[in-house]
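Quick one, tokens below. Sequence please?
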């Protein structure tokens, strides 16, 4: 009976069973040595394959275990990272909320500071406007007072002084919005400086001086003294005989008894001595009326009074006396200087000051 060879897909246990079943036959002399070798080779092959598979399985299991451990560590690290990220996110949220709260507080404080600054600026501007308005009110009052003084005195000096003082105050203020006021003041100063005006204070002083001199002026019918009628008489000399002196005295006395003179105005000769007082007072009243008319800016009335005073002076007073001649000359000069010249006005400066004070 021949031995049955094992199948290619036979397991090691099946191979061992076949070998046991064929053992008597193998011990026989008829068993073939080659088949045994083949069977053993196949068995070793399968054993090697099984060992290799086992080693591969072990290696794969170890590798899988390592992968699992690595995945576990990565998962643990990812969890820790996530926890840390959540903590950082929470801190970032808290920091953002704190930053937003601080920003809100800062914005509130900034708005308060801005409001306070605007209030301070408004207060400063209000104070500046109030100071400028007070200065403008003072300047306007000073200019109006100076205008009244100029009209009362007839002189432009009060106006010029007030305008120059106003210009200095405006220059010290340094406010650009007051430049229009300063320009108007400068124009008024230039207009007053270039305009011609009557020297009213000088005329008033000359009228007062003439009024004081009226009592010293001699009338036309006044009797001259002996010394005035004989200006060529010499002092008594020792060489003149006594009888010559007697004759000279007689002649002087005779000349004093009879006076011959030329009279152009008969009224002056017929003027009684008690009327001389009223004549002088009337002349004084004429000069005083001229003075009052000049103060009230009535130039025509003043000129008429001065003309009447000059006529009375030539009619009733002695024109050959030096004082009378000087008085007549002064009256003539006063009459020529009385011109109907109006004082320059400062309406432009007053209007610009009123506009600036109103804030326009």
């Amino acid at each position: 009976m021949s031995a049955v060879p094992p199948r290619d897909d036979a397991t090691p246990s099946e191979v061992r069973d076949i070998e046991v079943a064929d053992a008597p036959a193998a011990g026989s002399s008829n068993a073939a040595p080659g088949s045994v070798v083949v069977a053993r080779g196949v068995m070793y092959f399968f054993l090697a394959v099984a060992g290799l598979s086992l080693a591969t399985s072990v290696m794969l299991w170890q590798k899988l275990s390592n992968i699992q451990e690595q995945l576990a560590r990565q998962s643990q690290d990812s969890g820790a990272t996530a926890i840390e990220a959540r903590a950082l996110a929470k801190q970032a949220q808290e920091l953002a909320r704190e930053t937003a709260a601080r920003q809100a507080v800062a914005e509130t404080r900034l708005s308060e500071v801005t409001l306070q600054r605007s209030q301070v600026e408004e207060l400063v501007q209000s104070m500046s406007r109030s100071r400028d308005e007070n200065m403008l009110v003072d300047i306007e009052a000073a200019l109006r007072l100076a205008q009244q003084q100029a009209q009362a005195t007839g002189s432009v000096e009060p106006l010029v002084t007030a305008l120059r003082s106003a210009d200095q105050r405006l220059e010290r203020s340094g406010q650009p919005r007051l430049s229009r006021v300063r320009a108007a003041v400068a124009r008024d100063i230039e207009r007053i400086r270039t305009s011609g005006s009557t020297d009213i204070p000088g005329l008033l002083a000359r009228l007062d001086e003439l009024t004081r001199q009226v009592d010293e002026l001699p009338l036309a019918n006044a009797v001259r003294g002996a010394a005035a009628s004989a200006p060529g008489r010499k002092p008594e000399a020792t060489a003149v005989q006594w009888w010559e002196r007697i004759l000279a005295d007689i002649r002087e006395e005779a000349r004093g008894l009879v006076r011959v003179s030329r009279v152009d105005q008969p009224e002056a000769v017929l003027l009684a001595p008690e009327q001389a007082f009223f004549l002088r007072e009337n002349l004084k009243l004429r000069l005083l009326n001229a003075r009052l008319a000049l103060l009230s800016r009535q130039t025509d009335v003043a000129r008429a009074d001065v003309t009447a005073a000059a006529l009375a002076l030539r009619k009733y007073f002695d024109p050959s006396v030096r004082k009378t001649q000087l008085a007549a000359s002064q009256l003539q000069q006063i009459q020529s200087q009385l011109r109907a010249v109006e004082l320059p006005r400062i309406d432009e400066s007053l209007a610009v000051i009123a506009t600036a004070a109103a804030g326009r």
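The two ends are 145 Å apart (CA to CA). The longest helix spans residues 33-153.
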